[in-house]
Amino acid sequence: MKQSVIYLPVQIDGADFRHFALFDAFTRRKMWRRPAVFTAILTVSAALCYSRYPQEGSVLLGTILLVLGVGMPLVWYLSYEHSLHVQAKKMGLLKAPRRVYTLVFAEEGIQISQDLGKTFTPLSWGSVTAVYRRPDITYLYAGERAWLLPHSQVREGEGALRALLARRLPPEALHDVK
Fold first, then answer.
1. CA–CA separation, 60 and 43 (whole Å)
2. Residue 77, SS3 per DSSP
3. Are 28 and 2 in contact (CB under 8 A)?
């Protein structure tokens, strides 16, 4: 049987980084839950205040609760977006795509280079905890560490990468997301 080797020098830009960070935070780690619960609690509290309208101060208190319930999560989200922008700028991803690492996929494991292919670190298939495939990019996780694999940059084609991942990883580690 012919040995499958997929060589992937990865270039990402600020948009790729932002999409990944938003996916990781809000889809994978579900960080939206606490702000949503906070908003729901304060909105219900505001509704209770409004329902007691004739009482003095109920409208003011309801408005304050509603503004806080919507405003604080909004400020948190905008602060998160700003931190992504600052991080992308520090990483030099805002002006043009930049090569960030190289991965070599083979049947026996994955080799990863952070220094443009000079030295490679091995990663066993057993270390891969999850793979999330989107229409244009795949996110490969080993623990909390992730690598972005843009399909357009896979020289052997996205189908070859998908087939290799399907052969080497258990089905519960493979996820298709939109």
1. 14
2. helix
3. no
